[in-house]
C-alpha cells in the first residue's frame, strides 16, 4: 500500500538559534523567556534584554523568534546582567 500526504504549500522558514546558556527568564513574568543582546551605540556596548519565543532544541542550541540573524547574543554570564548594563565585547 502506498499513501500520499500533503500538509499544505508553506515553505520552511529559517529561525535563528542561540546557545541554551543564552536563555534567561523574563523578569517578573513566569513562563516567559529572553536573551541579552549586545548593542553598540557611539562605540560603547550595552546589554539589552530581548523577549523571545522558544522553539525546537538541537544539542546545545535552541531556535528563537525575536532575534535577527547577525545580532550578538550574550551566551556567557547572561544571567548576571541587567538591561542597559555596560559590557565589553571580546572577539
Task: Tell me what you see in this structure.
The chain is an all-beta fold. The protein has a domain of 58 residues. The protein is built from no helices and 7 strands. The N and C termini lie far apart (57 Å). 14% of the residues are buried.
Sum this structure up briefly.
The protein is mostly beta strands.
Share of helical residues: under 10%
Overall outline: globular
Ranges where pLDDT stays below 50 over 5 or more residues in a row are none
Query: For the residues shown, what is the average pLDDT?
Result: 88
Global Rg: 17 Å
Number of helices: 0
The H/E string reads EEEEEEE
The portion of residues forming beta strands comes to 35-45%
Question: What are the defining features of this structure?
Answer:
seven-stranded antiparallel beta sheet, globular, 91 residues, 0% helix
Summarize the SSE layout with pairings:
Elements: E1 17-19, E2 24-25, E3 33-41, E4 44-58, E5 61-65, E6 72-73, E7 86-87
Antiparallel strand pairs: 1-5, 2-3, 3-4, 3-6, 4-5, 4-7
